[in-house]
């Protein structure tokens, strides 16, 4: 699951993550499964024999081509666990490119050492096995057939505990948040294929016969469990003051940044929020608390805004806590807890945005107002798509501008206008493969081919954010300065 640790027991019913990954390879040389038989341990002898064999194979091929006898030419032994034997497992991860799109790639590990079982010499010169994250488990060198005959061949099993599948950044178990089965391009409808994280196996036996890295019958399917992140923008046209909400106001003030850069502390800044692997907020509602700082869901040093005063217009409001939040301003009012207050009959432009960690999301902002007859009504605006990434990698959203004017009777001021933003994404339940087979079942060296996937049903994640805009009344007073009438 996006942003969560790779752990045992997570996954669709009957296909959850196991406690460990087990792999095996078979070899027609039974000595591969005998620990006391290391073969050649002298590097000079190994190099000499291998060089001899290369030359001799060339001579044999030439003699056979000319139909001459070659029985006088013999190969030398090259069985050497120390110099040849290696079993390696590798897997994919993902990261975001410069455009904001998540791309799969090999995980940032040295798989040749950290995820390989191989042999080496220790400081004392003794040959030892290297059991790092891929560990040798059990082995056999013979097998009794149903007819009673004994067949001699090596079968060696390896294991890797699930806690060693460090797929995240910095050798972390955390699954990257930006790639899941709802990511654009993950499912190819034309070919009905999906693109989960793949695992690969490479094997070289003690005689130097190699199986290059080949896809295993193992895949990591990821579903998105993080709700989208909505935000609002309000521009007051009396002095063109812009409010981004919610915002990390305290952090912005502590950093001493100018008000013109406050948007960097809002959800409009994807780098610090949706694109940050450490951002992991699964709450389905964002509700500012009643403290003077208006922390979302009471999380101190988190995002902030004015609290919600309810689902209806409060006219007038007489809430002391709400008033203290409005007064939470510095710099002669240039730095304020958003949304900033408005005056009646002054135009304000609303915009709504949303970003999603992995998939596609939209958001709808709804505000309420009194019409000319004093009836309370509502208006909504919904986001559309815009992205700096490729068309298949949409990650951020915007909306066209919506202009609003708030009016009311004198006795209704100050009033609190409810703002609701509802965001939803395209998350789905688990995808999985019901099975698969080798492309050539008679050839164990052939590639693995998955069957058609079972696609997860819609399991959209949503988030609702509530705040309110204070609106104050204004009066125009006309006074007569001079009542005297003079003839000029």
Determine the number of helices (DSSP H or I, runs of at least 4 residues): 4
Radius of gyration: 34 Å
**What value does the average pLDDT take?**
91
Number of strands: 27
Report helical residue fraction: under 10%
Overall geometry: elongated
Biggest pleated-sheet summary? 6 strands, antiparallel
Q: Estimate the strand proportion.
A: 25-35%
Amino- and carboxy-terminal Cα gap = 87 Å
Low-confidence stretches: 387-394
SSE class: mainly beta
Describe the structure.
By secondary structure, this protein is mainly β. The chain is 8% helix and 33% strand. It has helices at 43-65, 111-114, 249-255, 320-326, and strands at residues 20-27, 86-96, 102-106, 116-121, 127-130, 135-144, 150-161, 187-188, 193-194, 197-204, 210-220, 229-236, 241-245, 285-286, 329-330, 335-336, 342-343, 348-355, 361-370, 376-382, 384-385, 397-398, 402-404, 415-425, 436-438, 448-450, 462-472. A hairpin with a 5-residue loop joins strand 6 and strand 7. It is elongated. The model is unreliable at 387-394 (pLDDT under 50).
